[in-house]
Amino acid sequence: MFKSLRRFFSPPTYEDLERNRQARFITRILYVVFGIAGLAILAAPFGITRPERVLPAGVLLLITGVAVRQLLHQGRLHAAGGLLSAVVWLTLTIAHIQNGGIHSVSLVVYILAIMIASLTLNIWERLAYIAASAGAMGLFIWLENTGRYAFPKVTTGAIGTIFAIGLTMIGADALIQVALRDLRQIVTRLQENERRLTESNQDLQASRSLLEARSRDLEERTRILEQRSKQLQTIAELGHTITELNDLDEILQRAVKLISQRFAFYHVGIFLRDAEGQYAILHAANSQGGQKMLARGHRLKIGEQGIVGYVAAHKQARIALDVGQDAVHFENPDLPHTRSEMALPLVAGNTLVGVLDIQSIQENAFTQEDVDTLQILANQLAIAIRNALLFAENQRALESAQRAYAESTRQAWAQFLHSRRQEGYLCDELDMVSPVSEGWPPEMQAALQAGESILVDDLTLAAPVQVRGQTIGVLRLRKSPASPPWNADERSLVDALAEQLGLAVDSARLYTTTQRRAERERLTAEIVNRIRASNDPHAILQTAVQELRQALGVSAAQVLIHPEQ
């Protein structure tokens, strides 16, 4: 039965934890009220309390418990607390009236009503209960003093007084324990929440640390990717730039400038191997110290001096993460701030053409990934350097061939003109063409020396006639005094005609020279055939001198055979 009643008066369960706490709290107070009422009822047979007064109060409290239980299950927690406080206060007030008013020993039990109100209601409602209790006692005093109401005279012995005070203490203690239990539960829940919060904070801190580590790792990866992207972009730009250049010095200067600007390196230098393969000579640098090194012809012994010498000897990249601890590093006074150095071989095919030297003011500035990426750039640069060297060599060979061909052309024309006494022709105003044998006018001499057209007094123009860079003659044109001066278009036309004249004259010379050579070869063949027509040595010698005299048009031809040979 007790379990059934307990299940009946068990507090409902809500989703909100605070409402669950309030429901349990009101239910425990209800248990305390029932316990106090039960003690009062049990004391009736002993004459401590009067059954005719206690039993109605017990019934009222039971009905109130049922009503409070319904209100709790309906979620009306505040109404349940207010109903319980009001019934308890009303029951006690009626008991005081029945037990002598102000002289009632049960007046001390008022404190229980105040405590129940304080534990279940808000501050204004609690103040209202205190004011009502004080007002009731004041009313009892006023009624008794004025004689308006005669309270029954109830005589209670010492046992009744002790019982009332004890009951009040038990009830107060029970209510205090209920409050303390609820408070301990709150504290326990707060401690549990704090523990969970601490664990959550630790988990959050761990998660934060993990996220920060991942963020740092992501930032590092992003930085590396950006650096790789910048390196690859530089490689692409450098490759595009150097493929358009043929001049070695310009390629080297563009390379060190682009690398230093894109990667903000302290020093970038390019060494080229000398012809003997003994030294690596600095040919380009971006830093101020590098310019000083260039000015004094800085070079390093291959295989003996510095990281550059090591790389040139082994054709393998090398990194010095801390130059102070690297035994191979060459300490250069012109680069005092160097802390890390990386040297990459410039290899085209299997041939070392030089070394790319990169230095940084930070320790541990280079990684193997930097070596792998920048080696691609070094390979492109090596190919560009080799192509520039081959181009320069071909240019020198071409210029040498052109000079030799020009000299051959000059000698051929000298021989051709030497065989012809006539030097040129003149066409006058009457359109008469006549040979010219006198000396050259000054303007024609000037054009011959300068190799370009000369304008004299705005009317006379002298344009050189050139063949493969050699001036073989001069074309002079003179306008009449009434004609306008030579303009730019006319001078361009004369230059073009002079060029075509040179080509035409040279073609004619070649044709004439070829014809003469063919004639000589034909004549030589005829003479040889006639000489070989006989097997007699004397007849051969006679035929030879006779044919040579006739063919060459000389006055006499003689041949002698030395008797001792």
Overview of the molecule:
This protein is of the alpha+beta class. It folds into 3 domains: 2-199, no CATH class; 245-394, Beta-Lactamase (2-Layer Sandwich), CATH 3.30.450.40; 424-526, Beta-Lactamase. It has 14 helices and 11 strands. It has helices spanning 2-8, 17-42, 51-73, 77-98, 110-120, 123-146, 158-243, 248-263, 288-295, 306-314, 368-419, 442-450, 488-531, 537-552, and strands at 267-273, 279-285, 299-301, 318-320, 340-348, 351-360, 424-427, 433-436, 454-456, 460-467, 470-478. The chain has a 6-stranded antiparallel beta sheet with strand order 3-2-1-6-5-4, sandwiched between helices. Strands 9-10-11 form a 3-stranded antiparallel beta sheet, sandwiched between helices. Strands 7-8 form a two-stranded antiparallel ribbon. A hairpin with a 3-residue loop joins strand 9 (454-456) and strand 10. The model has no long low-confidence stretch (mean pLDDT 75).
Number of domains: 3
Helix content: 55-70%
The rounded Rg comes to 63 Å
Strand and helix order: HHHHHHHHEEHEHEEEHEEHEEEHH
